[in-house]
Request: fold
Amino acid sequence: MSVPRPLNPAWTPHGRAAVGALSLVVVLFALSAGPTHDGGPPPPVRPTATYTTALHPSATGDGRERVAVMRGGELSMGITGPKASVSGPGTRAMLKLALLLLPLLTAIGLGAQLRRERDQRRKSEQRVMAFVATACHELRTPLTAISGYVQLARLGGLADLEKFDLVMARMTDETRRMSALLDELMLLARLDLGQPLRSEPVNLAQLCREAVADAQACSPHHPIRLTILPGTHAVTGDRDRLYQAVANLLANVRHHTPGGTRTALGLGTEDGFRVIEVSDDGPGIPVELRHSAFERFVHGGQAATHAPVASVGGGNGLGLSVVAAIVTAHGGTVSLEPDRRGAWFRIRLPA
Reply:
């Protein structure tokens, strides 16, 4: 069931004024629609049941007409009152008033539209500024770590070979993390601009098998159960991006649940859609944060929290937003379903 959208505050007072002015015009036209008279008694009612009335083509020239009435076999002549006219002075005044109000109504509607567009543009600019600020912070974190390791090497703190290998491994991890962040930022920018993705046949069953195998290799302590229902699980889309969407959901479990958390990945068909489900028995997502799960730079439940991550390529707060952007670009939907334990994500793609 659809919920009606609230009126825009910028439009409400002006909309009421426009409706009131339009109602006034309607009332004035209704009052002026009837016959106009110059005073005196109303015109006589012409007989319809017992009399025969005939109209002569001639007229008196003052807006009245001659009528011949047959009564009891005798013909009598008469002149009716003035005819109804739609071109009287009252009607002309109403038309002038309508012509004056029409530009006013147009100006009110145009002004409200411009205000709505201005507010939307301002909100969009604020979102872009917040996005850029958070992205800069995320990029600064690995750069700061790499800079610190470089300074340590210059001061001779890496003379020990074991310490040197450890620092090199950490620098490699931070570099990969920064590269992954840049790749996801570029992907989101492309999808926001509406740039098309590749369109090719994709076997979702094979894709899910590969995603599960790679996730198990990254974290053997997070067991994954794969269930593929019978049927053909083919869609048309960008295989690499669809793989990324499934891999990000599995990585979300890996990054935000303790070791030993069990994950289930299911693939099937429902109402003409291919459905991919990823669920786990971990701690889940807090209720107050579920509505923002697919927003950008949301870390483990809250935005703008820059906690260190335990593995490379994750925890930057873009994983679920990338999933949502990829699925939407394929004409599908992704949702976070209510569950008593853990998190339960559903992807629906057109078959």
Q: What stands out?
A: The CA atoms of residues 67 and 78 lie 5 Å apart. The longest helix spans residues 89-154. The two ends are 25 Å apart (CA to CA).
